[in-house]
Specification:
The chain contains 27 helices and 32 strands. With about 950 residues, the protein is α+β, with helices and mostly antiparallel strands. The strands form nine sheets. It has an eight-stranded mixed sheet, with no helix packed on it. A five-stranded mixed sheet has the order 18-19-20-22-21, with helices on one face. α1 packs across α3, α14 runs antiparallel to α15 and α23 crosses α24. The longest helix is centred in the first third of the chain and has 18 residues.
């Protein structure tokens, strides 16, 4: 294949939009600085289909563009590219040795004459460097280059006696490095084996810019290459990697060691390389398997089964079967690694709670997490691995798609839409909360430094991007959407992409269909959402005259007003009483201006709901009369309005009221319909409102009235639930609803709920006859354990703690810690905190995983006022807090203090807080203590705000 080199105009003070020197990469568009034209990058001839000249100003309705000054010196120069890495690494992780030795051969092509070769490296001790010229007969040694390392930019610059001329070279670097027990790189993890002895294993995590911690490399996502890997390790351990094992051989220098050789990878980014050295076992087959410690083998079967189905169904959905790209899929459960996961191509790494599921001890929430996290990581095998972002500015092309298919792929793999129905509450509404901040970034955001890149892995890249992509999936229709994605992935496979590449193929897929507004294409529509920060509120003002309505848009901000000239392309649809077509998600029209008057067939006396099933990424506000019509409709027959729109009405109205765009009394009156609500989605939205109000009102004169209000809402639905038992055939959403409602019932003091919780605990831990113990089902355990422990239950508390110490199931351990934090026995809480000190001593029976000590604090200050008061007693003991802080770190203690301050209500609690803060002088910084005081002292001021006064006035009718 021939290639064409074309002029490229380098950005000044701006991150390059693409690496123009990368062979095999199609057109990249640049329009910056003093450049007067748009240029194509290196491009294969003769196919020019990606060349779509466009300026920033023409990409959206407004001239908003994600351009800001960044330090371009962090980028590698455009003079050379990698083609292949051959890595040989030796590890002694079996003996918990946390260093490694390695040699990496870097095959590269010099594109233009240069005096230096610049790559990335971080904290590697270089031993030797050799330079070879690659010819048709093989590598020829030509020099031993000198090198210089910039530890800030993490660049290593190689020089030689002469300039590097265009052509092929190989650089061989021998070095050593260190493993880490946190963050990224080559990581050490530990677990207890069947003999209760600690074992160490090694795994990798290189995203986003940390492959350089293990080998010198071109550590930018568009600079793809192939990889060959050899790992030398002890014969009692084994190595796995992205690709299948070719074979092993005995290390000639030490017969106790083996050398594992792996097949060459396809072209891929450095951050996707992965390997692990463990003494684990494999569950599954050669194509799809899970690698796990032997004493958790039985917990891996669910992941093997559901993962294989998800992988196959995603491949069919995208018309790109996974095994046509990669020969196998291995998932590894990494102990003591939290709940995260990483999509390395062909070797996905998971924290154990995100991959292992045991129905005997784990809950429906654990099962949901395992299912959706697998779907998220497997979606990345296409969105991120097969096609990578040209630069981290476009990380949303990875994470947004993975977030969407984290939920949507479960529909493909399992019958029903239960997990997909959680999307609005867990993704869209969660994104709204962060995206309503005045300082929030847009989806496209220029970055250069390692810290800047790391900051991009946020709610905007995941939840907002997933919400925006889901909106376009619905607008374009599933057939066109899938066709566009398939073409996008096929065109960019083993390559990198920008937003423009995605928009191009979606545009092609909808050609000839009457879907888009006449004045814009997909690129314009998409850019209006990706280039601007925040999101809009669609204001619907009905004229109540022949169906006329005025639609307008403005940026939604949580607590401020910020003028903006930006205009979003907002797709809208609506339903009304006599045409409640909530399942027809066809776009009715587009609001592509600040405001517009539309004609509808909605009778003046009927309610109207815009944004059916909340598939659009925007809030909706109505005039007062329509809100009243909606409230009346919900009170008369909730099912007249779709359950996802009922959730939307609660979430939108509450947040509109918090932003002073709606009267809070409207929200509280609307929510009264909940007494007949039986679906989880509306209750999930309501739970956020009630939690906010409880936080403000607990311990104040309005608390009793609030509890009466909650009782009115939950009493009827509580009576329909199986509080402490689990029946055959229960749906997942029913389980979610039961936990939410019973949690509120116990919290506000329902005697039936508290007695059932206490009895459930007694039957499990203190039965009349030991053999008659009846374990609490995991699916109701959270409420039963927490509120069962709120009496003076020393024996049950100790038995639950013993189970925690004995458990090797990390998800179960998390649940047990949360339960222990609920205890209303102050001495139990203090004893629990004391175990942190014992856990730091050698050969102790008090064993905590990496984050579990921190989790203890979170469980306690989230467990209620009595546990929090006990925590305050410990924190004001200077000796105890100093000893604990030496183990958990100042950050954990500071975070606990701030959370206590944020929960302080009333003069009595304020006095206790002040005593604690005074005692901690000299332990925490004056700034931290001062901030905590300010936070607590500001809380009573809420009652003097319009919001506080309106809520207080509304609740007066419940205070009788």
């Amino acid at each position: 294949m021939a290639y064409r080199m074309v002029k490229w105009c380098p950005p000044t003070g701006h991150r390059r939009w693409f690496n123009p020197y990368v062979l095999l990469l199609a057109v990249t568009l640049v329009f910056v600085g003093d450049c007067s034209r748009v240029y194509a990058a290196v491009h294969p001839l003769p196919d020019d289909r990606d060349f779509v000249p466009v300026s920033f100003a023409s990409r959206g309705v407004s001239a908003v563009a994600p351009v800001r000054d960044v330090d371009s010196t962090y980028f590698l120069p455009n003079t050379s590219i990698p083609t292949h890495y051959a890595i040989s690494l030796r590890t002694d992780i079996h003996n918990d040795v946390r260093t490694f030795d390695a040699t990496t051969e870097i095959y590269l092509t010099v594109l233009e004459e240069t005096e230096t070769l610049v790559m990335h490296v971080q904290e590697l001790d270089i031993k030797a460097v050799f330079l070879y010229r690659v010819s048709s007969t093989g590598p020829i040694l030509i020099d031993t280059p000198t090198y210089k390392i910039d530890i800030v930019k993490e660049h290593i610059t190689f020089r030689t006696f002469a300039t590097f001329v265009p052509g092929g070279y190989m650089l061989t670097v021998t070095y050593s490095g260190s493993m880490r027990n946190y963050q990224s790189g080559y990581l050490v993890s530990r677990y207890r084996d069947d003999d209760n002895k600690w074992r160490s294993v090694g795994t990798t995590h290189f995203q986003a810019t940390l492959a350089r911690r293990v080998f010198p490399c071109y550590d930018e996502p568009a600079l793809k290459a192939t990889f060959e890997l050899k790992i030398t390790h002890h014969r009692t351990y084994r190595a796995i990697a992205n690709m299948p094992l070719i074979g092993t051989e005995i290390d000639p220098t030490n017969r106790e060691y083996l050398i594992s050789n792996f097949e060459k990878t396809p072209l891929m980014s450095t951050y996707l390389l992965a390997f692990a050295v463990t003494d684990f076992v494999t569950v599954g087959n050669s194509l799809h398997n899970v690698v796990v410690r032997s004493n958790a083998k039985d917990d891996a079967s669910y992941a093997v089964t559901v993962g294989a189905t998800i992988l196959e169904r995603l491949g069919s959905y995208l018309e790109l079967p996974y095994y046509e790209q990669m020969p196998k899929m291995t998932s590894i459960a990494v102990p003591d690694r939290g709940t995260g996961a990483m999509e390395n191509w062909g070797l996905v790494t998971y924290g154990e709670p995100s991959l292992l599921y045991n129905p005997a001890v784990n809950t429906y929430r654990n099962r949901k997490r395992v299912t959706t996290v697998i779907a998220h990581e497997y979606a990345h095998q296409w969105f991120g691995d097969l096609v990578s972002p040209s630069w981290w500015d476009y990380i949303w092309l990875n994470e947004g798609f993975a977030t969407l298919y984290e939920y949507y792929a479960t529909r493909l793999a399992e019958p029903g839409d239960e997990y997909l129905e959680l999307f609005n509450g867990e993704v869209v509404q969660r994104a709204f909360l962060q995206d309503a901040n005045e300082q929030i970034r847009p989806m496209n955001w220029n970055t250069a430094t390692q810290d800047e890149v790391s900051s991009l892995f946020d709610i905007i890249a995941y939840q907002k991007a997933g919400s925006v992509l889901n909106m376009f999936r619905n607008v374009l229709g599933d057939t066109a959407w899938r066709a566009g994605l398939t073409q996008y992935l096929t065109d960019r496979e083993y390559n990198a992409a920008t937003e423009a590449n995605l928009a191009l193929h979606l545009q092609t897929a909808v050609a000839g269909q009457d879907i888009l507004p006449s004045t814009a294409n997909v690129r314009d529509l998409l850019a209006s959402w990706t280039d601007a920060p925040g999101f809009p509120v669609l204001n619907v003002r009905r004229l109540y005259r022949d169906g006329l309505m005025i639609l307008s848009q403005e940026r939604f901000l949580e607590q401020s007003v910020l003028p903006t000239t930006h205009v979003w392309h907002i797709p809208y649809n609506y339903a009304h009483k006599s045409s409640a077509t909530f399942y027809d998600l066809t776009t009715t029209g587009w609001l592509s201006s600040r405001a517009a008057k539309i004609e509808t067939s909605v009778p003046d006396d009927e309610w109207v709901v815009f944004n059916k099933q909340q598939t659009g990424y925007y809030r909706v506000n109505y005039d007062r009369r329509n809100w009243e019509l909606l409230t009346e409709a919900l009170m008369d027959n909730r099912n007249a309005i779709h359950r996802l729109n009922r959730a939307q009405l609660i979430d939108d109205s509450f947040n509109l009221a918090r932003a002073d765009l709606l009267d809070m009394a409207v929200v509280l009156r609307l929510m009264r319909y909940l007494r007949t609500e039986r679906d989880y989605a509306p209750w999930s939205a309501a739970d956020k409102v009630l939690t906010y109000l409880y936080d403000k009102l607990r311990g104040t004169e309005h608390e009793h009235a609030f509890l009466v209000y909650v009782d009115e809402l939950i009493s009827e639905v509580y009576a329909t639930l199986s509080v402490d038992t689990v029946a055959q055939g229960e749906t997942t959403l029913y389980k979610y609803l039961r936990q939410l409602i019973t949690g509120w019932a116990c919290r506000i003091g329902y005697r039936d709920c508290l007695e059932r919780s206490r009895e459930a605990l007694r039957k499990e831990f203190a039965p009349v006859e030991p053999e008659s113990s009846i374990p609490v089902h995991p699916d109701v355990r959270a409420v039963m354990y927490c509120y069962g422990l709120q009496e003076d239950t020393d024996s049950e508390f100790q038995l639950i703690y013993q189970r925690l110490m004995a458990s090797r199931n990390q998800a179960e351990r998390t649940d047990l810690i949360d339960a222990l934090g609920c205890s209303k026995n102050a001495n139990n809480i203090k004893t629990l905190l004391g175990t942190i000190l014992f856990s730091a001593t050698p050969d102790t029976n008090f064993v905590y995983l990496a984050d579990e000590r921190n989790q203890l604090f979170r469980a306690i200050y989230s467990g209620g006022r009595i546990p929090t008061m006990a925590l305050m007693d410990v924190l004001q003991d200077t000796v105890s807090v100093s000893q604990i802080m030496a183990i958990v770190g100042e950050g954990t203690i500071s975070n606990a203090v701030m959370n206590i301050a944020q929960r302080t209500n009333g003069p009595v609690e304020m006095e206790r807080l002040e005593t604690m803060l005074t005692a901690m002088a000299g332990i925490l910084s004056p700034a931290t203590l001062s901030t905590a005081r300010d936070v607590a002292m500001a809380r009573p001021q809420w009652f003097t705000t319009a919001e506080g006064l309106i809520i207080g006035e509304f609740l007066e009718s419940y205070s009788v």
